[in-house]
Amino acid sequence: MRQLRVALALLGATLCALAGAALPTASATGSASPAAKKLFSIKDDRIKHPTGLVRSTKHQGTYWAVSSSGDTGRVFALDATGKVEAVFRFGAKVSDVEALGIDRNGTLYVADIGDSKQSRDQVEIYTIPEPESLQDANVKYHQYDFKYPDGAHDAETLLVDPGTSQLYVVTKSSQGAGTIYSAPASPTRQGTNDLTKLAAAPTGVITDGTFLPDGQRVVLRTSTDLATVAWGDNPNAIARSAALPGEGGSVALGGTDGTVVFAADGNSPGVYELAVPAKAATGGTKTPSASATPKPATTDSNGTDTSTKSHNLRWIIIGAALFALLITVFTFPPGRRERRDRQAENDRLTGQSPPTPHRRQHS
């Protein structure tokens, strides 16, 4: 019996050690984030819910913004104080504009991808050359139609690769995680373009995102925080910010290196600046190359994401370890013979006579 208890105790300790090795440490998921700095408020009744925000490539200090569903086809230019400098209208009949992107050549991408009822047969992205001057104008646009391979989805995030202008759409999910889809490398305006499912998005209700200039990382906005994502075959969050002030649906590159800006909804929406959430430095960390592109998602034969199975296995190991330790403590106390042997040894050492066993009387 004693040998059995020892064996179980060793088993429990071994499982605990294995579980500890399998679980990630806190430093691997990020470092403490400084407080967000408020830059300005948007004091314009036309922009109460800025769902898309990008930094201009041609006009220093200017940000482009779009408003939420129900708005018309237009883009606002904001100065460094939050004042609307100009409004550019394009003639498309939009449904639910939820995101805004910009490439290195100054092309604006207006993403009409919202679908809260998940009933749309296709979604649209409109491109507009960034205007040379900041004056109200009606502008020309190009329309690109896209459809998902697995039915309609609600989405609020458009990503534009800074090196290749490759487009990615990240769907929004209130349960679990959304999904990353890629557009064709060269979308066509003739017919509908097929989106390709690439990988599961990091957890959280994702409402916007932007590539960082290196093309290796993406910052995603969720309903509660910002997540820095290592871009590659399996995009994963490597750092997260503290809770953000207020809810919102936009994030963009900041005015200085290593920063992003984001907006909070409400009357006079506030725009804040925050350092990009950074992973604590560790030796030997491999960074994905700038050209890394996610590959189509892989699942097992039952359709389960393998990363989810690995996470579940860690908790199975922990549960087994605790169970073994509890069994050892409560199920296998010292046996009767072992207690009697110890009592006999104590009696021999002290010179006492062993007690006479009591026999049960039978009537």
UniProtKB/TrEMBL annotation:
Residues 337-348 have a biased composition (Basic and acidic residues). It comes from the Bacteria. The chain crosses the membrane at residues 313-332. Residues 1-21 form the signal peptide. Residues 284-308 have a biased composition (Polar residues). Residues 281-308, 337-363 are annotated as: Disordered. Keywords: Membrane, Signal, Transmembrane, Transmembrane helix. This is Uncharacterized protein. It comes from Kribbella karoonensis. The lineage of its organism: Bacteria, Bacillati, Actinomycetota, Actinomycetes, Propionibacteriales.
